[in-house]
Write a structure and sequence with these properties.
This protein is mainly α. The chain contains 8 helices and 6 strands; from the N terminus they run E-E-H-H-H-H-E-H-E-E-H-E-H-H. It has a single domain, classed as CDP-alcohol phosphotransferase transmembrane (TM) domain (Four Helix Bundle (Hemerythrin (Met), subunit A), Up-down Bundle).
Length: 277
């Protein structure tokens, strides 16, 4: 039985046992909530026509999203609640927000084709996150199955931020092509690539607790300095390269006759090796 004092009685021994109250861990969930606020802020800024600030909100959400899991592991505060909270936050910040920003900025002028592209991106983000949740235990940790949603958001919003920074509006022309149709293409590419089986490197092998050669620190410093030369252009270029890298890896593996699926390719999971045949 259970009373208001959280005292339970063992039905076999008849001994009163004090039940431990369930709660949630504050620290990692604060990072998750902050990432969620970044996505919400981006939507509000897009509604107000401040697309430069909307892009900043998404990129802040990306940084915070990359930290919540690391903080949870470092402080040993992982929980099922945190995992679900993280997925819901990602859906807002990297699913709904980029789709709405792209629609408000340029896709609106395409009529039904505009909301078609925005919805396809949003739906693919939801499908990608759901698949990630159920496949966590069987996917090789070195790779993502499909383009991760933060990188997809960076492609779409980074493109918008870059053109906005250059003074080009969503109704203009670029390379002789109407910007709304370029946005249409970026939205579809990012959305559909999220739900492919193309492998994208996860960089999870580089742990914070591992020692690295001194040259690595020098390269990181040079990389930060290079990004600061022109953050919108360099940042967008980096995510463009990453957004195409999965297809390069897939083509290289296919040409070499290697396993292209990332399902259970890791030797650390011997019980699940047969799933990728």
């Amino acid at each position: 039985m259970h009373d208001g004092n959280d005292i339970a009685t063992d039905p076999v021994e008849g001994i009163a046992i004090k039940k431990r109250r369930k709660g949630i861990y504050i620290l990692p969930n604060l990072f998750t909530l902050a990432a969620l606020f970044g996505g919400f802020y981006a939507i509000v800024m897009a509604m107000n026509g401040r697309y430069d600030l909307a892009a900043v909100g998404i990129f802040c959400a990306m940084v915070l999203d990359s930290l919540d899991g690391r903080v949870a592991r470092m402080t040993n505060t992982q929980s099922a609640f945190g995992e679900q909270m993280d997925s819901l936050s990602d859906m807002v910040s990297f699913g709904a927000a980029p789709a709405l920003i792209a629609y408000e900025w340029a896709l609106r002028d395409l009529g039904r084709w505009g909301w078609f592209a925005a919805f396809v991106y949003c739906a693919c983000a939801a499908l990608r996150l759901a698949r990630f949740n159920v496949n966590t235990g069987v996917v090789d940790k070195r790779y993502f199955q499909g383009l991760p949603s933060p990188a997809a958001a960076a492609l779409v919003v980074g493109f918008i931020g870059l053109l906005t920074e250059s003074g080009l509006q969503g109704t203009g022309m670029l390379w002789g092509i109407p910007v709304p149709w370029l946005t249409f293409g970026f939205s579809l590419y990012a959305g559909l690539t999220m739900v492919t089986n193309v492998p994208f490197y996860s960089f999870k092998e580089f742990g914070m607790k591992r020692s690295v050669p001194f040259a690595v620190i020098v390269l990181i410093a040079l990389g930060i300095a290079f990004i600061n030369i022109d953050p919108p252009t360099v940042g967008f270029g980096i995510f463009m390269v990453y957004g195409l890298s999965g297809y390069v890896i897939y083509g290289w593996r296919k040409a070499k006759g290697l396993q292209t699926s990332v399902i259970s390719t890791s030797t650390d999971e011997p019980d699940e090796r047969g799933l990728h045949k």
